[in-house]
Amino acid sequence: MGPGKWAVRFFGIWTGQALSLIGSSVAQFALVWWVTTLTGSATVLATAMMVAVLPGVFLGPIAGAYVDRWSRRMVMIAADAVVALAALALAYLFWSGSMQVWHLYVVMAVRAIGGSFHWPAMQASTSLMVPKEHLSRIAGLNQTLNGVMSIAGPPLGALLLAVMPLYGIMLIDVGTAAMAILPLLFIQIPQPQRSTDVEGMAADGKKRSIWADVAEGLRYVWSWPGLFMILIAAMIINFVMAPASSLMPLLVTKHFNGDALQLGTLEAAWGLGVIAGGLFLSVWGGFRRRIYTTLLGVTLMGLGIILTGLAPSTMFWLAIAGNAIAGFMNPIANGPLFAVLQATVAPDYQGRVFTVVSSLASAMMPLSLAVAGPLADWLGINAWYVIGGLSCVAMGVVARFIPAIVNLEQNHRGQRTEEQALVPATVEVMATDVDRP
Fold first, then answer.
1. pLDDT greater at residue 228 or residue 322
2. Top-confidence residue, 423 or 121
3. CATH for the stretch 208-437
4. Which of 43, 57, 118, 431 is the most exposed place for a label (fewest CB within 10 A)?
5. Torsion angle, CA of 251/328/112/83, rounded to 10 degrees?
């Protein structure tokens, strides 16, 4: 693929996917507002959240195995079509006046199942379309998009609720999903060259079960020490960071004696930080050894969370600064990590590896919320922010001295190159020409 051609092809697909995500963000806000005004029940909202998360936790590894077997382009088309059909069903239910809460649960589960296939297919396709040296920049753009959606989604959803009925907003989601499908009909996505053991056939020539592919993906992660350690670190970070957003309303009301305006300000500080951090990463690209960028991001994100937790009740501006710093460093931590995985994991295993990482990390959310609530009641809400921030700082610093992690990009499944074997990992210099994989 010639210079520049990859960008035309990739961004043709990326733009359609971005529009679809924005449409889904607006529709999600409208649905949350509808169920909130209809029921006023925290239990209903929590149940809806669990319905949206659990399919990915349990189905993810299986979906990843199928993504590695099937055409990733066709998987993305099918997943976007599922989103469009689900939104169309909601539009009909709202239009006919027959919408009920259980309909929402069913549709959210269906969308979550579609997302379980779509996300790994898109991530695995990115590494086949984008040159390795640009993967961190693309990851930065993706993080920026997430920040834009967190900032623009709610007010745009509120604006549309004021000018059109709910079924109209659902039809917008249908339209943006169609925009995501359209480029995929004309732009080809390269398929990885598959080894004989992932073609769906066993050694004896019989059809291989999907469970064998799932197990093989788990063994792939387990047998690569650096990748396995990264997975454990991602689970820990999700565990300590997930409750921060859930506890923030209590932090505002109980510690700062604030109201909705202060809560919105803190959330906006995070979202603006994510946008700025994503743009910064997309321009900078990170250190030549991407894992150093991730570890720096994790460390400084932890410091931002600590600052939020330690802010006195009379210094709300300090919590704003801490949240903005944490938001800024979030793309710096996440973006290069996905770029590392895209650059180092064998293309025909990426669907399974990405979903294993995502599923196990997502599984930490309900567990951490169960622990964080009682702990915050016992030690105080601020304590969880300090504990979570310190955990991130500790992981970012300690991981810098673990050779299996810092050499992840060079040690493909633990095999060191000859020239790397001559230099101890603990004395390597960040951002030197030698670090380029």
1. 322
2. 121
3. 1.20.1250.20
4. 43
5. 120
